[in-house]
Amino acid sequence: MEVKTDLAEKLAKETALQQHYVEELKAEVEKLKARLGHVPTCHVTTFGCQMNARDSEKLLGILLAAGYEETESEEADFVIYNTCTVRDNADQRVYGRLGVLKGFKNKNKEMKIGICGCMTQEQVVIDKLKKSYPFVDLIFGTHNLYKFPQLMCDLLASGGPIMDIWKDTDITVEDLPVCRKYSYKSGINIMYGCDKFCTYCIVPYVRGRERSRDKDAILNEIRSLAADGVKEIMLLGQNVNSYGKNLPDKTTFAQLLAATEEIEGIERIRFMTPHPKDFSDDVIEVMKGSEKICKHIHLPLQSGSSPILKRMNRSYDKEKYLDLALKIRSELPDVAITTDIIVGFPGETMADVEETIDVIRKVEYDNAFTFQYSKREGTPAARFPDQVDPVLMQEGFDLVLEEVQKMARKRTALLQGKTELALVEEINDHDPSLVTGRLSNNTIVHFKGDASLIGEIVPVSLDVCQGFYYLGTRQ
Ligand code: SAH
Ligand code: SF4
Ligand code: F3S
Predict the structure, then answer these.
(1) Does ligand 3 lie within 6 Å of residue 94's CB atom?
(2) Could you report the per-residue pLDDT of 46-77, keeping only the tens digit for each?
(3) Which DSSP symbol is given to 240?
(4) Binning pLDDT at 50, 70 and 90, where does residue 1 land?
(5) Which CATH class is domain 296-414?
(6) What does pTM read for this prediction?
(7) Which of 356, 411, 366, 376 is nearest to 124 (CA)?
(8) What's the CA gap between 102 and 113, in Å, rounded?
(9) What is 2-164's CATH superfamily?
(10) How many CB atoms lie within 10 A of CB 365?
(11) CATH number of the domain at 419-474, please?
(12) Ligand 1 proximity of 54 Cβ (cutoff 6 Å)
């Protein structure tokens, strides 16, 4: 208890301090406004996963609270890149675009550039930024994101550059301004970090150890989101079903789901990502009895080959995974199962790829993200001697993708002619007479409608299957 009290005290102190800095920042932004002769503009660019996107909502919330105005363009007075480093192409995109930002900065002497997120937790990245991108004014990491008000104040007051990277943290400051991207749906962090150390993955190194948030703090946040008009929430964490293991009261993920179900105003509950190893029967039971938990489970497979899974340190083998996925299929027949697959992990042969394809055929995934293995410096797999030849990697990737698409088409077609509830998310990108909605099982449907429907949950008949999505009619 002693420890918990200390932490609670530290949390309260840090929260108050950063709230104070939001006020200080307002004064700095006023001064900047006078210098510029207009309201300073800002832009936050997200490169990563849902957790990264949630962090961006916090960054933007603070900037708007301090008096910045958001702009669509990166030609702004302040641009911050919230980076991802899960695969090398994520890093490369950031470096490429930083070059473009430099051009904007040459035209606007008052422009400031910030970079934060998972990339900045890596020493190699910091070295490269210092050497080749000295025009970046503000660099901080994932553990001290909550210090953003203070760092911004220092930047505007001193002109920068400012760099502040922490190795880890034991607190999760939440009570700061947030600007949600969508009015009707929101992610909510239930835990941070990851303790699984899959041998290919950089996340545990850049996000730190697993830390679950207090259950009441989560439920209170969801209640206030509901009061603010949010209908759909997504509980976020790298391994949501390990939730609570390090909490004093040992609340389980299933208990958290059940408690969330009780919150009035919330109509849909999603979660991302559960780990197959920790997917216990109590979650299946809660889902069976639930009106609100969406009919979708994302269950990352990574590989269907037991020896590869072992080398990946995934803590399950092909049989265990299949048992679980097929149990979900039989107990929750209308639940969509999606997955992540890596092709080309060190030592992977075509026989291993066949094992993966076998799992795809047996589970009949509703959808899957397929990735080519990307070597991440500092992870154990980066030092494995048997790295796969890129040509073979591509070959395996194409085979897996083909099978995934075959299954996804088959599963999507099963809904043909049904009427389902869709949450309307936006006006269709290509045809403004259509809106785009999402079914509980995550399938997308486009149908006639206008902006007044955004955020509404409406019945839609699924008329024409277009492969992975539907054209429908509002009923
Ligand atoms: N915590 C989640 C997802 C983490 S990252 C989980 O355990 O599944 C999202 C996905 O990126 C992973 O599921 C994996 O498929 C992929 N990924 C992670 N590291 C990778 C790497 N080094 N190369 C290719 N894909 C990777
Ligand atoms: Fe990475 Fe594995 Fe943790 Fe997922 S469970 S974030 S893949 S280490
Ligand atoms: Fe990328 Fe960091 Fe998410 S590495 S996938 S943004 S946790």
Answers:
(1) no
(2) 999 999 999 999 999 999 999 999 999 999 99
(3) G
(4) very low
(5) alpha beta
(6) 0.96
(7) 376
(8) 9
(9) Methylthiotransferase, N-terminal domain (3.40.50.12160)
(10) 24
(11) 2.40.50.140
(12) no
Polymer length of the chain: 475
Planar angle of CA 450, 453, 459, nearest 5 degrees: 110
Kindly list the distances between the CA atom of residue 53 and the CA atoms of 138, 196, 271, 322, in Å, as whole numbers in the listed order: 19, 22, 15, 31
* CA separation for the pair 53, 168 (Å, rounded): 20
Q: Please count the other Cβ atoms lying within 10 Å of the Cβ belonging to residue 143.
A: 22
pLDDT (tens digit per residue) in 278-314: 999 999 999 999 999 999 999 999 999 999 999 999 9
CA–CA gap between residue 305 and residue 279 (Å, rounded): 20
Find the DSSP H helices in 374-468.
390-413
244 CA distance to ligand 3 middle (Å)? 21
Question: How do strand 434-439 and strand 419-427 relate by DSSP bridges?
Answer: antiparallel
Average pLDDT over residues 437-459: 98
Cβ of 376 less than 6 Å from ligand 3: no
Q: How far apart are CA 232 and CA 294, in angstroms?
A: 9
Residue 2 confidence class, pLDDT cut points 50, 70, 90? very low
Delimit the domains of the chain by residue range: 2-164, 182-294, 296-414, 419-474
Contacting residues for 232 by C-beta, under 8 A, at least 6 apart: 184, 185, 186, 266, 267, 268, 269, 270, 294, 423
Which spans in 45-161 are helix H? 50-66, 88-107, 123-132, 148-158
Which residue CA neighbors atom 4 of ligand 2 most closely?
238
Cβ of residue 86 lying under 6 Å from some atom of ligand 1: yes
- How many angstroms does the Cα of residue 142 sit away from the middle of ligand 3? 10
The alpha carbon of 333 and the centre of ligand 3 are apart by a number of angstroms equal to: 31
* CATH code 3.30.750.210 for 182-294: yes
Q: Do the domains spanning 2-164 and 419-474 agree at the CATH topology level?
A: no
User: Ligand 1 centre and the CA of 309: distance in Å?
Assistant: 13
Which amino acid is present at 470? Y
Q: What is d(CA 269, CA 293) in angstroms, rounded to the nearest whole number?
A: 5
